[in-house]
## 1
Amino acid sequence: MNLRRLRLFLLLAEEKNFHRAAERAYLSQPALSQQIRALEEELGVKLLERKPFRLTPAGEALKEEGKRLLEEVEALKERVRRAGWRELRFGVPENLLPDLMPLLDHLRRGLGQAVEVLEMHTPEQVRALKEGRLDYGLAGLKVADPRIGEEPLFKVPIVALLPEGHPLAKEERVALWDLREEPFLLIPRETLPPLHEAFMEVFRKAGFAPKVVREVARFPQAVSLVAAGVGVYLTLAPYRVFPHPGTVLRPLKEEAALQVSLIYRKDPAPPRLAEVRALLATLAL
């Protein structure tokens, strides 16, 4: 059966008027009438009376069964499309992964498509997007690249890691200024320049330069050193889910946070960009 003719017949059955149905189908009335006659010839039955307009019993049957048939055709097309989809590849910084898993699960369910999560920091995400090894990135740092699209999602607070016996460890929030005399551990600039600079900007806004006694690239190493009393450490709130024995994580009283954004290559655009945007818009971030 010709599906275009079936759709035109169902439109006519809904409107019960050739003129209105032809307008909705962007056809002339004679062209619509010709398509309906061709469908009747294909099926070998009369589907409607024209004056006055009414469906024959065969037309009524086709109206009911035709709707179901078109729904099944659309469902089949969707199943075939989904079968041909590969996994969507998302780059996510390790330090943001705990807070971003609900977002990724939301996308996986909403898209009905597998999502592969690749741990990589923002600069590596940008390289992978340009090389076609990644579809999307969830970046915790600002991206200044004309080839990369960037859409803000939410902010992640910067927090202080203190020894559990520290005088300020009992406070719910810590003013960074109150730590100005403390020795600090800091992520090395060469490890992740944008994050290092983001932390330095927090210190500048607080009104002092930190006394950096050691550079530390990995959170587990920072935990050991902070627990041993070597210094205090700035990190990101998602690290609260990682083990940090002998230490406490405390939010800062100052406004200090990293902007998390969806990033992607602009040309060519990634698969299902409009759907990803729509799903993220429905998520309370």
## 2
Amino acid sequence: MGSATVHSLERAAEILTVDTQVRGLDAAEGIFEVADALGESAQLRGLIADPSTDEQLRVGLITRLFTGKVADVVVAFVEKTAALRWSSDDEFVSSIEALGETAVALTAQQEGNLERLEDELFQVAQVFEGSRELQLSLSHPGEHPQAERQLVDRLFGQQTLPATTLLATRAVSSVRGSKVARRLHEIAERVSAVAGRQVADVTSARPLSEPQRAALAQALQNEAGGPVHVNVSVDPALVGGVVVRLGDTLIDSSARTKLTQLRQAIA
């Protein structure tokens, strides 16, 4: 991601956080609609993201294209993002998508459901990660959007928040089946960032007790230097110990890895 995009995405997220009118899943879906429309037209997104294009023209294009198609508050917000500088047209579109995800998270936070959303995204990712059949059924993302929505709704619609279902549908429609879990983890990190939290994915050889979970969460918070949302899964193949991924840091204290290292040392 280019430096201009990094700066502008941060600025746009700040605008979105302050503008409390851009809340609710309808508003988030409006932002996603804009991302989809721009993604389908290379000429249009190139013109809007081109820094040499006059700012008033860029903003005016957004106004003419989306007024009446999405809520006025969404149009006004996207106009502000179009006025910023972006490193490339593709990064502009992916940033609009990311801002839609942030809008979902801000809505969940407003409703008191942010932590539940974080938990559910991890659980949904686990389902996709563990099902080869599901992955194969999603080998052509975006080709059958209605079927993809129905699949996600059938699998999770009755058990999860509407926000979770919406974000899972976006993940399913954007990447191939084998990459859906990774995409959901990326979305979960963005959701947690709304609350100023990092995400730690912990895999344990056996279920952790509540005191163990609490101690682990405290240790990870100390390591991260701030709040951490901890996801825990169980994999008996580790034999013992845990594997922790916190951002770009991997901590592997599993018995399986230690045994492998011992075999290599004596080979």
